[in-house]
């Protein structure tokens, strides 16, 4: 199981995909020791930045517990770690983001189980966000590293006209979605593309391989969705051609695909 540790002034927290472990240092009011908490029991996370003559803190607020307000109250709280400086604060920003990401993934799994085996959601993590793919939609979840800030956006798979995938090299790679009505940055520069709301950055080779699978999965879902529209054998050639023209106008197929089908229908 992967885990990451984040150290503060009077202790540390260790984050895994299922739990958070609070490790108390000798300066903690609890004394040395540790406590493990399940992600599902964490209701919210309070993060306060250190200021002049005042420490900051990260506080895990559990279901049924009350938030301790202020640094003095947090210092005596068993679910809080104090933060001394900017470097520690940046660490705990990442910790908060990671915990919330793992909680979101747990929620997706729970929702998928409720919907039954016929429904699936695949999750792909990038450098500044997460892509969730279902048979009908994709969801882009922006992390705090994304230029859009925290948030999410859902796009219908039928509306996606193309997917651009760039492998990371000296600079980050990316996956970018183009769809009807979108205003994407189509620059070849990775820096420009990463600023786009329909793009997720790719930091390493492992992420690139994951997003190759994501691209293939989305395209397979698109083929399944389009199949009923393009396999009708009872329509006339003119009706068939009209349907493909509508798909072209909607940006669902390219002009080359339309011309190929046109030649096939007309027997050219």
Would you give an account of this structure?
The chain has six helices and 14 strands. The protein is of the alpha+beta class and 268 residues long. It folds into three domains: 4-103, PH-domain like, CATH 2.30.29; 120-225, Roll (PH-domain like), CATH 2.30.29; 232-266. The longest helix has 30 residues, at 86-115. Residues 229-234 have low confidence and may be disordered.
Calculate the mean pLDDT score and round it: 83
Low-confidence stretches: 229-234
% residues in beta strands: 25-35%
Which term fits the overall shape?
elongated
In angstroms, what is the radius of gyration?
24 Å
End-to-end span in angstroms?
59 Å
Write down the CATH class of the largest domain. Answer: Mainly Beta
Number of strands: 14
- Sheet with most strands: strand arrangement: 1-2-3-4
Protein name: BH0009 protein
Domain DUF4429: 25-89, 142-209
Pfam family, one: DUF4429
InterPro entries: DUF4429 (IPR027860), SHOCT (IPR018649)
What descriptors fit this protein?
PH-domain like, 3 domains, 6 helices, four-stranded antiparallel beta sheet, BH0009 protein, 268 residues, alpha+beta
